[in-house]
Amino acid sequence: xxxxxxxxxxxxxxxxxxxxxxxxxxxxxxxxxxxxxxxxxxxxxxxxxxxxxxxxxxxxxxxxxxxxxxxxxxxxxxxxxxxxxxxxxxxxxxxxxxxxxxxxxxxxxxxxxxxxxxxxxxxxxxxxxxxxxxxxxxxxxxxxxxxxxxxxxxxxxxxxxxxxxxxxxxxxxxxxxxxxxxxxxxxxxxxxxxxxxxxxxxxxxxxxxxxxxxxxxxxxxxxxxxxxxxxxxxxxxxxxxxxxxxxxxxxxxxxx
Amino acid sequence: xxxxxxxxxxxxxxxxxxxxxxxxxxxxxxxxxxxxxxxxxxxxxxxxxxxxxxxxxxxxxxxxxxxxxxxxxxxxxxxxxxxxxxxxxxxxxxxxxxxxxxxxxxxxxxxxxxxxxxxxxxxxxxxxxxxxxxxxxxxxxxxxxxxxxxxxxxxxxxxxxxxxxxxxxxxxxxxxxxxxxxxxxxxxxxxxxxxxxxxxxxxxxxxxxxxxxxxxxxxxxxxxxxxxxxxxxxxxxxxxxxxxxxxxxxxxxxxxxxxxxxxxxxxxxxxxxxxxxxxxxxxxxxxxxxxxxxxxxxxxxxxxxxxxxxxxxxxxxxxxxxxxxxxxxxxxxxxxxxxxxxxxxxxxxxxxxxxxxxxxxxxxxxxxxxxxxxxxxx
Lengths: 256, 378
Hints:
The structure holds two protein chains of two kinds. Chain A is of the alpha/beta class. Chain A has helices at 35-51, 66-75, 93-104, 126-134, 187-193, 238-251, and strands at residues 2-7, 9-11, 19-20, 23-24, 31-33, 54-61, 79-84, 111-115, 137-148, 151-158, 161-168, 171-175, 198-202.
């Protein structure tokens, strides 16, 4: 089975976000594999354990993303590809999907796994866009995956409910929390990862003109969410508090 | 000169840290309270390759450098020094074999460890601690065998060890000072392991005495030549000592992290106690001394990596890091106030675990003697 994982290096979710000169400051920040992409890596490894084949992890980003690829290799992936996109202006989900579709054009693919969203951009678009470009099915927010021959039976999270989808390979899925528990890399895994192939490509290698993949999204402003206001503590006797709470929920919060 | 961990070392540190946070910290207290050996955790550590760091790769070791070894030991001890000391007991018992063993001995006895076994380093005796040379355990050569008699105490892993690396004195005419290092199989007749000691700290580790009563050890199990035993064991300790520093460092780091978090959360007089200079000075001292310990430990380990363990650097590292662990853990308890004295809080365990670091593998007084001897050598 030819299994691919599309992943991204993102801010550690423990990091505090600050904005400097209109940009999210990343100096000194810790980076990790996007947590949803970790589910994708884990599921890919499970598919290989069950069906055999090879797992290739692909990322688009700068040199530093090699570290996250090595982590995926340490978890057990066989090969990694780093596509450098530093020449792309205002890269956005369109750019990423366009570059990835060029990369995948001549590849034999049975399944591509991606995260449901990234914890930075959170567009959730790259997976479906890529599937569209490649002309294969896409199933998003999956929480269970089983494959028999070329038939895939998938459970997906639809706002808390479960939808069951049957579809055919080749296929792209995006992974949701609950799909699996990603493994840690083992120490021998880390040692082996150093020797596994990691291919580095740039746009020229893929015959891509940087203008053709320039982002289509314009960022107007970047700002932090407003600080959370302090909670309100109701006072008085219980029946009075209940009445006041109901009235606040109706008139102020407008939730009932 | 480079003070930074490289990419691999960083990846190893992160992996060890994640493992410790998920698989050790949530359970450490329970095993400490029960004074029970956590086989499940040891098996899991083995599963992830976090074991037998002293073994060369070809004998089943993880094939990592010594800085990575120290980084892992630090992370493990941040989680539980009791578990760490048990893991490192396998390393300690391996060093004499590494130093003085033949290929055959290495293959056989390292193989036992790689297959899930335990081993123990048996040096200390009831009346010979710091005065190693004053030991009473003896061996006598009879044909192809040595007859071993004596008692060793405070032996980590003793109850579960498949074999012991033992130092004994050759029985001969008056005043013999010939030492013999031996590998003694646990199931040899006359090997008796005493009851599990009840300890102040490191309570999830196993400690017991071992007596040898007319134990017949094949001459093929001798490490090095007759008379080389003392040198082999001292060299083994020079490999191990910096790693005791790394363990102490992990205890200090763990206690420090608890203290910082608590100081930011705990409010008195209407503000977090971290806002008070009295607390800030304690935290700053902790951070500074931990960093100094880390540099000393990494330097001592660096010498080991070069294949030239440095006795003075090893003593600096072990002594300073363990004194720091005791001080940091004490202050971390102080910052927690009354809560620090309650066993629900992690700091009291760091406090109890820190003490032995100043005592075992050469007391800190002996470390200072070693350092002074080196300084005054010429």
